[in-house]
Amino acid sequence: MSTLIGRLSGTAYDPLGFEFKLEKARSEGSDDEDEDEEYDKGSQDDKAAVEFHLGRFCARRTRVYHEFTHWEYALFKIIRDEVDELHENRQSHGFFRIAYSGGIEPPEDLDDADGICDWLDQRKVIDREWTKIKDMMESARHLELERKRGDDD
Predict the structure, then answer these.
(1) 68-71: Cβ within 8 A, 24+ apart
(2) What is the C-alpha end-to-end distance of the chain, expressed in Å?
(3) C-alpha span between 22 and 19 (Å, rounded)
(4) How far apart are CA 88 and CA 125, in angstroms?
(5) Is the alpha carbon torsion for 143, 145, 147, 149 positive or negative?
(6) What is the mean predicted confidence (pLDDT) over 123-131?
(7) Strand intervals (E) in 89-138
(8) pTM score of the predicted model
(9) What pLDDT was estimated at residue 9?
(10) Which of 46, 103, 115, 128 has the highest CB neighbour count under 10 A?
(11) In this predicted model, what pLDDT tens digit does every residue of 34-88 receive, in sequence order?
(12) What sign does the dihedral 91-85-43-24 (CA atoms) show?
């Protein structure tokens, strides 16, 4: 029995480069750069959510599927935000987070991917994201076990 409502909303992005898609803004013939920028940033104005009626099991399955659908984008955003913060702090001679007293500082060359990866690894950023992926896999496994036990609605 469908007792829950699932809503799909948000701004579409290219799964290969994670750039927001601008078809809507361009198809409406917008010449206003501010409007394109707002859409590019992920504005959800004038976006109607698509609704689905779901039972409990389908809702759980949809939630897990949604997490898997967007995990790469979420990982990209976390790493991008860390690297952007490094660039901002380097330009302003600001504070850099390190894992512990005596931990490594970020590399001098911010184009050094291996050095940044080592710095993120020492701060456990990579471990936290790996744990999230393992938790997603575990939740998917539990869905399958529930289905086999007949717990689905």
Answers:
(1) 68/136, 68/140, 71/132, 71/133, 71/136
(2) 7
(3) 9
(4) 19
(5) negative
(6) 92
(7) none
(8) 0.67
(9) 87
(10) 115
(11) 444 444 444 444 467 889 899 988 899 999 999 999 999 999 999 999 889 888 8
(12) positive
